[in-house]
Amino acid sequence: MGGEKIYKDFAEFLPPGTQVVYLLLFRLFGLCNWIPNLVAILVGLISTWLVAFVSRKVIRTSPFLALLPGFLLLTYHYLGEIHRWLSSAAVFGALAVLMEERSRGRVIWSGVLCGLASFFTQTQGIFAVAGLLTFLFWESHQDRKLRQRLLSRAAWLVVAFIATVLTTCAYFIWRAGMSSFLDNLVTFPLFYHPLDRENFGLGIYFAEFPSLVPLSDLPHHAFSVLIHILVPFIYIVFLAAYRRWNLKTEESIRLMLINIVGLFLFASVAPAATYFRLFTVSAPALIILCYCLRGERWLSRLTTGLLLIAGLYALACPPMQVQMSSMSVLQLPRGPIAFAESESVDRDALAWLTLHTKRGDIFFVGDGKGLFFPTTLRPKDKTVGYDNTGQTRAKDVQDAIETLRNYRVKFIQWPPESCPPRFYDPGEDHLQPLSEYVQMNYHFVKQFNGPGNSDAGPIGIWQRNE
Using one digit for the tens of pLDDT, what is the confidence trace for 213-230? Predict the structure, then answer.
């Protein structure tokens, strides 16, 4: 909205879809802090409706069970990484389109929706298309009548997907240039972002669970364990069971479609399978689980009841805890924000920046982007953050130094000397020139620390010497 070019004037390693959604809402309602909350509510309701629609196509015997997957999906906190929820909603829409039949028109629309999924998260749409192609090959193998239509249906799917991706991204490629566009969306995510080994790798799976869980958090953690078990293992179990069933009904074909797409969605988040990312792609697994619970046995009824209780708890308890907890409201340039005590480090940093900066000032952050929007500060960074892991490239360091020098940025967010950046491999460390530049041209002025029970690290503010 300020005239900067995404991917050229500032870094963004995701496709522009989420930014376009926010831009349209900002144009409509103004630059308000509550816009992300509105987007979270809308995408949560849309995802829930789409999952319920797909679920009812395969679970016909029990309306309650058919609605349960969508209800469980609604219980999660949608604000984090909203781009993944937007992508998942588009993929759920593609599944909904193909539930009745896989005609040419429906295949084309599913390709368009997968293209929209890639407009929000590049990998999710690509893996969804791969899953749909796999299903079309499988379906043609089951039905000889479909074999002669296989190539045409696969071609229409791929063409619709590619056309949608090119159409939605063409303007941004033209504005930023192909080189900057590919560097942000392909080169960095593919080769450098995985070098952040704290957040990437198979070791992340199940790594988020604490050794001791408070009794009040037990239902939430139990549901988290369930998601980790379901995704991806229920897909593998289904494939093994399907071979023994040898069914060729329309219901079983739809289940296979859900299963294959779900397996490919898991593959899209497998390199960094945090609980949040697993949950964003868990809807197919929840549908298959509820389908398996449709019987009249006591174990099915007990499991269904436990899922309902856990869902009701997850839906009601966190909002009640937030409303009953002690909150402090901070008036910021974009409007008021309420902070819990555990968020005091962000609250204090935002309050200080509001007093010491003015609207439109350029600000530089070593890690994280959450300080920009509420304070009306502007970014000029060419990467997502700076540390001495391999994801901070030598050219990113030089770009940062040029930005600080050319714009003479007054305040920067940089770790205090007592909290050096992370370190993994001396051969991957390119940060030294930037650290030396900060030490020579800036002095440390303020440190914000969270309460003792907070996981938030300290925020350090440095000021230019002259």
Answer: 565 666 667 777 888 888
How large is the greatest C-alpha to C-alpha distance in the chain, in angstroms? 77
Residue 234 main-chain phi, psi, to 5 deg: -65, -30
Q: Is 375 part of any domain?
A: yes
Q: How, if at all, do strands 411-413 and 362-365 pair?
A: parallel
Supply the pLDDT for residue 86. 94
For residue 394, give its domain range: 327-464
Mean pLDDT over the full length of the chain = 86
Amino acid 62 reads S
Highest mean pLDDT pick, 192-206, 224-238, 289-303 = 224-238
Instruction: Tell me the helices (H) and strands (E) count for the chain, helix number first.
Output: 17, 7
Domain termination residue (choose one: 285, 320, 355): 320
Report pLDDT digits (tens) over 66-109. Answer: 898 988 888 776 667 899 999 999 999 999 999 988 889 999 99
Looking at the structure of the chain, the number of domains it has is 2
Q: What distance in Å separates the CA atoms of residue 229 and residue 300, rounded to the nearest whole number?
A: 17
CA-to-CA distance for 140 and 134, rounded, in angstroms?
A: 10
* Lowest mean pLDDT, pick from 143-152, 308-317, 334-343, 448-457: 448-457
d(CA 447, CA 459): 6
The rounded distance, in Å, linking the Cα atoms of 85 and 67 is 19
Kindly state whether residue 77 falls inside one of the protein's structural domains.
yes
Q: Provide the b/e sequence for 308-344 (b: ≥16 CB within 10 Å).
A: eebbebbeeeeeeeeeeeeeeebebbbeebebeeebb
DSSP codes, 30-90? -S-TTHHHHHHHHHHHHHHHHHHHHHHHH--S-HHHHHHHHHHHHTS---TTHHHHHHHHH
pLDDT at residue 136, as a whole number: 93
* Residue 407 sits in the same domain as residue 277: no
Q: Are residues 221 and 350 in the same domain?
A: no
| In a shared domain, residues 178 and 306 | yes
Interatomic CA distance for residues 150 and 137, integer angstroms: 7
Q: How many residues does the chain have?
A: 466
State phi, psi for 339 to the nearest 5 degrees: -120, 135
Q: Which whole-number Å values give the CA distances from 150 to 10, 96, 103, 133, 141, in the listed order?
A: 43, 20, 11, 9, 9
Query: What separation, in Å, do the N-terminal and C-terminal C-alpha atoms of the chain show?
Result: 31
pTM of the model: 0.89
